[in-house]
Amino acid sequence: MTFPIAPWQRPAFRSTGSAAAITLIAFADQSALAAPPELRIRDAVPRNAPISALDLRVHQYAESPAWIDSWRTGALRNLALAQLDDVKRLDAASCCYSITVTAEDPPDLTHLQLAWAAASAIAAAGAFAILDAYAAHWLPGSTVATQPPHRPFAIQEQISLIAETEPTPGFGHPVHTRGMIKFGRPDLVAGVAAHRIQETGRILNHLAGLLAGGDVLAPGHKLRFDGRRLTVTPYVPDANTPELNLNNDALLLVDG
């Protein structure tokens, strides 16, 4: 007997009119699926998952070398060195799949479940490395292939929380999320002294979970954590605020 997949809920959902998007890139040694690619994932997603919004494409290196290389060179390759066991295989891959789902102001997170179910099926068919593009995070294909569809939602599996090791003069160490566009919400940024990095990371992780659940933060909001007062302001890179290339709107948390 097959039990229905429970949707990942957003219990505090407030409409903002913002689109949510997820893009996964699955690398394979050669085409893992028949052409055109077909997936049988209906039993691996909630019944209300937006199947029609799934954009699945296959990319051959002979046809799109620059596009494919853009996902496995530069900063993304540096991340792969830390997160994958076989980067040489990644370098040599002749094929990849792009999995994109966009949802307009989604009241639940079934679009994420849909994208991950597609990636799991492609990994089971032979893709060996999966890049979560907006979170800038790599996963081995074997890990994605065995993700249980009934698993509960976990914010830590959907975003990256990053602390830059080098401080920016007048700003401090940038601590920020990456990947909040997957919820149609802005990323979160703070600049702190070294001794406050871990504390700030916990705060951002907590706030990211609230936003994923549908809550809203906006400039002017006042926050308090264990006696620490923070004000939400727009994140605008300038001479004193570093450009973090988040590929998303963001909010800056400042003391006061």
Explain this structure.
This protein is an alpha+beta fold and 256 residues long. It has 2 domains: 19-153, no CATH class; 158-255, no CATH class. Helix content is 23%, strand content 27%. It has 6 helices and 11 strands. The protein has helices spanning 65-69, 74-83, 87-92, 110-125, 141-145, 197-212, and strands at 19-28, 54-60, 95-104, 129-132, 137-140, 160-163, 173-178, 187-192, 222-225, 228-234, 250-255. The strands form 2 sheets. A 6-stranded mixed sheet has the order 6-7-8-11-10-9, with helices on one face. A 5-stranded antiparallel sheet has the order 2-3-1-4-5, with helices on both faces. The protein is globular, with a radius of gyration of 19 Å. The chain starts with 18 loop residues before the first strand and ends with a strand. The model has no long low-confidence stretch (mean pLDDT 95).
Largest sheet: 6 strands, mixed
Strand content: 25-35%
Shape: globular
Note the total helix count.
6
Q: How many discrete structural domains?
A: 2
**Overall SS class:** alpha+beta
Number of strands: 11
Binned, the helix content reads 10-25%
Radius of gyration: 19 Å
The whole-number mean of residue pLDDT values reads 95
State the end-to-end CA separation: 55 Å
Helix-strand sequence: EEHHHEHEEHEEEHEEE
Which strands sit side by side, in order, in the main sheet?
A: 6-7-8-11-10-9
Low confidence ranges: none
